Amino acid sequence: MKELALAGNPNSGKTSLFNILTGSSQHVGNWPGVTVEKKSGLFRKNKEIIIQDLPGIYSLSPYTSEEMVSRNYLLSGNADAILDVVDATNLERNLYLSLQLIETGIPVVLALNMSDVVEKQGKWIDTTKLSYQLGVPVVATSALKKTGIDQVMQKVLREMERTDEMLYPVYDSHFEAALSEIIRILGNAVPQKQARFMPLSFLNAIKNYLNSWYCLIFKKQRLKMRLGLRRKSTLKTQRPLLLMRAMSLLSQQSKWRCKPMLLN
Fold first, then answer.
1. Which helix (H) or strand (E) holds 37?
2. pLDDT tens digit string along 214-245?
């Protein structure tokens, strides 16, 4: 038996595609240790393939229970291939997860779902060029109209039989140099297939930490400016009034938004 992981962002049409591929042969339960729903089923046209419908997620960063479930499953080595269901109307946001899935070392096929909606908008996505850039097969699909389903599954079956070396995205030369150094240090501490994914997860965690630190500094500076704390004398002469203003501003803190810091 081979396993196919169905992954994608929430509202990408992943569940609709899962229902088309499996029909009535579905099993619903919970993932071990969590209350996240687990759905699996046999591929209607090949009963030797089990399709695992992973929770809808935006990334493989282990912050939510859904992300933890998806990450743990993909790193367990059970999946023989990944069918990444992408919302073609919101390509930029969806491709963040796609890159992470490719870095896992598991063969990936990208289903550009809702392609019919893109066409109605008068737009067109060059699947050949996108496939070349990502290094994985890309097929335009529509779960609503049930188009491109057979074509994308043919690509999946072909990828499952792959024996050649995986192709990975190539980043900036400085980033690749840092990545290579981390891989060298890790050595055999991680499985060969995950040699790139683990360091990338580490670097992503650092980026998120720096983002959080930046947001904290940004909010403190903004609070100081709004309280008028540029001069020490202000704090001494208007302490009661400033305390009241501080409490009022802190209660609104949840409404603040800070800009993300982009790391080159």
1. strand 37-43
2. 676 666 666 666 655 555 545 455 555 555 55
